[in-house]
Design goal:
The complex is a heterodimer of chains A (about 280) and B (about 625).
Chain A lengths: L1 H27 L6 H15 L5 H24 L7 H23 L15 E3 L2 E3 L1 H23 L1 H11 L1 H6 L4 H23 L10 H14 L5 H21 L5 H15 L14
Antiparallel strand pairs in A: 1-2
Chain B lengths: L11 H20 L2 H26 L7 H18 L4 H23 L4 H21 L9 E2 L4 E3 L2 E3 L2 H24 L1 H11 L1 H6 L4 H27 L1 E2 L6 H14 L4 H26 L4 H19 L3 H17 L19 H11 L7 E12 L2 E12 L3 E5 L6 H8 L7 E6 L2 E2 L5 H5 L3 E3 L12 H7 L9 H5 L3 H20 L15 H13 L5 E5 L7 H16 L3 E5 L3 H7 L2 E6 L2 E6 L1 H5 L2 H8 L5 H6 L6
Parallel strand pairs in B: 7-12, 7-13, 10-11, 11-12
Antiparallel strand pairs in B: 1-4, 2-3, 5-6, 5-8, 8-9, 13-14
The chains are: A mainly alpha (about 280), B alpha/beta (about 625).
């Protein structure tokens, strides 16, 4: 039970990162290799804000930071390359990721950072396992983010416009949907959810400048499990990744947990690139 | 690139180039002090890694970041074998490279089913898995690493000085550069560039794509592993960090800096990256303090990667290439030869008259069935694109497939050529059932095809593009394409001659060194026909060859089809231009809504009410319709 509860919080985090991947991929066809580092930038934004603001507001600042960094990346690095091949665009996100990671390291150093949880108090005990209150906030935040995005995409006009854009960018352009505006929204939303949720995790563990790569890879697995398409399944995928990681760490060795999760990524990509869905996302690129 | 076209030969020039290369290397090794010699040797190793990336990413167009893992296998393999088991260094190097090669080949097949970002992410995870594994494993010394490895012993001569590392590393670099340059001119190199350009077209030309990708990945794994072994014998100590993502990014940076399309890009990029690193190390401590060098260096590398891609996506090599081209044009005036089309003697473009003329040239006598399709069916979800179609193509006949837009013509051809698997039904070529074969396997049964929109390969001239079609006319593999044996050179000459013959026949010879993608649409279509013909097929499928052709070009294409028929080829042509269809075809197969509407001679079809209805979309009065025999598009 403890494993499940731990995986629940971790899974919400991976799922949120996965949703960040999915939104950008759905709307622009790209995979953002800087996703993890953008989330870390958000978390550090929250760390800075927490010195003057209450934790909940600091997490809001984290989401905002993630969104701003993400949008800046789109306009400075990706937008100028929109006529280049997807490979060039991918490489550029790798470059941005490195730049963000090392900039954070230059400013904050390599040491861990933390801030106070939203609600203090002892952990909640459920069926013999315990979960910190802050983790409940994290899970809640992810679910709220998911519901908000799902509502946005399926119910609102802008959301539907975004979906139309993802189906056929040319046709969307013909009916007056701006490519740049839509991509900006996509990058903003993806940076906000990833940055906000990672910021919410900082009080329970801590954040380091170099965390982005591993986080990004795990979020990517969640996105693969969601078929790079379905937000809900991506959350489920995040939970699965986290559960595997927690179980391996507990029963085999903590040092090997990441190795096994990354091996899982390779196997999953090769054997079942459509993840939990029926459609093959890998064919679309 | 004119080098694509020049036939593969071993000449005195290679000797001179090798002598110059070795001369420069020796000069540097002799003049540089130990510090710079050490740097030079390290740059050589990075250049080797980047060369591996040029093969996989630059040539074959597959974005892989697996370089760190194979580099590590070479370094750790050499160290483990020599230190723990006392092997002779060179033997250990060969074995480590073999292990990397075998492993590379084994994982390449499943891995390269992925494309684009997904391949990049999987290979990135692979490098990360290798890094974490050696970092956690006890027998590799964990995160502290392993020492005790001796300098490489080259038949009694110990390579312990930095100068000797420079010589060995850069001689190996020179060999690999030469191999990769040569590969580009050969059969396998062309196949790789074709895969990068357009996979379906490469497969239709008979290129076995999964195999070609796996082999080039293996070659790259071996090169990376050799680089790793050289690294281990140079530093005499291995620990995990150099074999993680950091190196993969450095190598990517080199490839981006230098340009990925040419092996020279790897060499230029490796040197440029080191210059940048040296510059950063000289300047940064003054700006940010010594503690910030590591992160600051990474920040600059990350930013540079972005800036270079935004400003100059083809890297330094691309910029140099432009510069050289500019200087050449300035010096020699505009020496680019004006492509002069041979003056066509043809005056008449009247299709009917031409057909009569063609028929007088010799009778077409349809022979045995070459391809036979039975009950072909293709469903896309709820849509049935092709519905239970039977079709026979005979030797020496021109069969036209016509039908309104969306009738399933292209889908039908894609199923015949193996580009699309049918939902049901069978396709037989000769006596062999090819239904479930993939495109490159079908091509082996001497079927070639063209595409509705021309599928040419980026950065290839017309001669090389057409020569890709002769892929199955040769059998020189990747190794012999890079290290040409006399037999390989002979084969390449034969392919060049066969290509030249087809180019001449189709009036393309004057365009041979033009970039195929820069031609007019009509010319691109004819280049595709040439690529299909050079494979010497017995069955050729043409998907709307007339789109973009002018009247005279259409007339000569029609004459070509008639001539091919007389030579015994089976020709299937999809076309909307009815004048062309009626003049060139022996039989016409009409499709409507995926079903066969009518099969018959041009005259029969032209007078068929159902066909007229399908085209005009209205049920006309029967008598009127019979009179309006001219079915226009």
């Amino acid at each position: 039970m403890q494993s499940v509860l731990t995986a629940l919080a971790l899974g919400a985090l991976y799922g949120a990162l996965g949703i960040g991947f999915v939104i950008v991929h759905r709307l622009t066809g790209m995979v953002n290799f800087a996703m993890g580092d953008i989330a870390v930038a958000g978390a550090f934004g929250a760390v800075v804000a927490s010195s003057v603001l209450p934790p909940l507001a600091a997490i809001g600042v984290g989401a905002l930071t993630g969104a701003v960094v993400s949008v800046l990346m789109y306009h400075l690095a990706i937008h100028p390359l929109r006529h280049q091949s997807l490979m060039v665009q991918t490489i550029v996100t790798l470059g941005v990721g490195i730049a963000i990671r090392s900039a954070i390291q230059l400013i904050f150093g390599t040491g861990p950072r933390q801030f106070e949880p939203i609600t203090s108090g002892s952990s909640l005990t459920i069926l013999g396992g315990s979960i910190p209150l802050q983790s409940l906030w994290l899970v809640g935040l992810t679910v709220v983010g998911y519901l908000g995005l799902a509502f946005f995409f399926d119910r609102t006009l802008s959301g539907k416009a975004l979906s139309a854009f993802s189906v056929n960018a040319y046709a969307a352009g013909v009916v007056g949907i701006s490519l740049t505006v839509m991509a900006t929204i996509a990058f903003a939303l993806s940076g906000a959810i990833a940055g906000g949720v990672l910021a919410a995790q900082v009080p329970t563990s801590f954040i380091t400048a170099g965390a982005g790569l591993a986080l990004g890879l795990k979020g990517f697995i969640a996105a693969i499990l969601g078929g790079f398409e379905k937000l809900g399944l991506t959350l489920v995928g995040g939970f699965i990744v986290a559960l595997v990681e927690v179980l391996v760490a507990r029963n085999v060795s903590a040092a090997q947990a990441s190795t096994i999760v990354f091996l899982l990524l390779i196997v999953l990509l090769v054997v079942r690139p459509q993840g939990l869905t029926r459609k093959v996302a890998a064919d679309r690129v | 690139m004119s080098e694509l076209r020049s036939p593969l030969t071993l000449s005195w020039r290679h000797g001179v180039a090798a002598a110059v290369w070795i001369g420069i290397v020796l000069l540097f090794a002799g003049l540089a002090n130990a510090y710079y010699a050490g740097l030079g040797a390290t740059v050589g190793i990075l250049a080797l890694l980047a060369l591996g990336m040029v093969l996989v990413t630059g040539y074959a167009g597959q974005f892989s970041l697996a370089v760190g893992a194979f580099y590590g296998i070479g370094a750790y393999g050499s160290t483990l074998l020599t230190v723990k088991y006392g092997w002779y260094g060179l033997v250990a190097l060969v074995l480590a490279a073999t292990v990397a090669g075998v492993l590379g080949y084994a994982i390449a097949r499943p891995l390269f089913r992925l494309r684009g970002h997904f391949l990049a992410m999987a290979t990135l995870a692979l490098t990360e898995v290798f890094y974490l594994s050696v970092n956690n494993a006890g027998f590799t010394g964990g995160s502290t690493g392993m020492g005790g490895i001796q300098p490489l012993d080259l038949f009694g001569f110990s390579l312990s000085s930095s100068a000797s590392h420079v010589v060995v590393n850069w001689v190996v670099v020179g060999l690999v550069v030469w191999g990769i340059l040569t590969l580009r001119k050969g059969r396998e190199g062309r196949a790789l560039l074709a895969i990068r350009g357009h996979e379906a077209a490469a497969a239709a030309a008979g290129v076995n794509i999964p195999s070609a990708k796996a082999r080039v990945f293996t070659a790259s794994a071996v090169i990376s592993a050799v680089a790793g072994s050289l690294y281990a014998h140079q530093y005499l100590y291995v620990n995990p960090p150099p074999f993680g993502l950091q190196t993969a990014i450095d190598v990517l940076m080199i490839a981006v800096l230098g340009g990925m399309r040419s092996p020279w890009g790897a060499v230029i990029g490796a040197i440029a990256l080191e210059v940048i690193y040296q510059g950063i190390e000289a300047i940064l401590p003054g700006l940010l303090g010594t503690g910030a060098v590591g992160a600051g260096q990474q920040l600059i590398i990350g930013l540079l990667l972005v800036v270079i891609l935004v400003v100059r996506p083809d890297g330094i090599a691309g910029a140099l290439g432009d510069l050289i081209g500019f200087v050449r044009r300035r010096l020699g005036g505009d020496r680019a030869p004006e492509a002069v089309a041979p003056t066509t003697t043809q005056t008449s473009t009247d299709m009917r008259a031409l057909r009569r003329q063609e028929d007088e040239a010799g009778p077409v006598s349809p022979g045995s069935v070459v391809l036979s399709a039975r009950g072909l069916l293709k469903r896309y979800g709820g849509v049935t694109a092709v519905d239970d179609v039977d079709l026979d193509i005979h030797e020496g006949e021109v069969l036209a497939v016509i039908g309104p837009n969306g009738a399933g013509k292209s889908t039908l051809v894609n199923m015949l050529s193996g580009n699309t698997p049918p939902t049901a039904g069978t396709v037989t070529i000769g006596n062999v059932e090819t239904t479930s074969m993939r495109a490159h396997e079908v091509a082996r049964h001497r079927l070639s095809r063209t595409f509705q929109t021309p599928c040419l390969f980026e950065g290839m001239d017309v001669a090389a593009t057409v020569k890709v079609g002769a892929h199955l006319r040769g059998n020189v593999g990747m190794l012999r394409s890079s290290i040409p044996t006399p037999a390989a050179v002979r084969e390449e000459r034969r392919l060049a001659d066969e290509t030249q013959a087809v180019l001449t026949r189709l009036d393309l010879a004057h365009l041979a060194d033009r970039d195929a993608k820069n031609l007019s649409l009509g010319q691109q279509k004819i280049v595709e026909v040439a690529r299909a013909l050079v494979g010497q097929p017995r069955l050729i499928l043409l998907d709307e060859p007339c789109a973009g052709l002018n009247k005279a070009e259409k007339a000569s294409l029609m004459q070509l089809l008639r001539a091919l028929g007389r030579e015994g080829l089976a020709v299937l042509v999809i076309e909307h231009d009815m004048e062309f269809v009626m003049a060139s075809a022996d039989r016409v197969h009409v499709l409507n809504f995926g079903k066969t509407l009518r099969v018959g001679t041009p005259d029969e079809v032209q007078n068929d009410h159902a066909v007229i209805d399908a085209y005009l979309g209205v049920a006309t009065d029967a008598d009127e319709a019979a009179e309006s025999v001219e079915v226009t598009h």
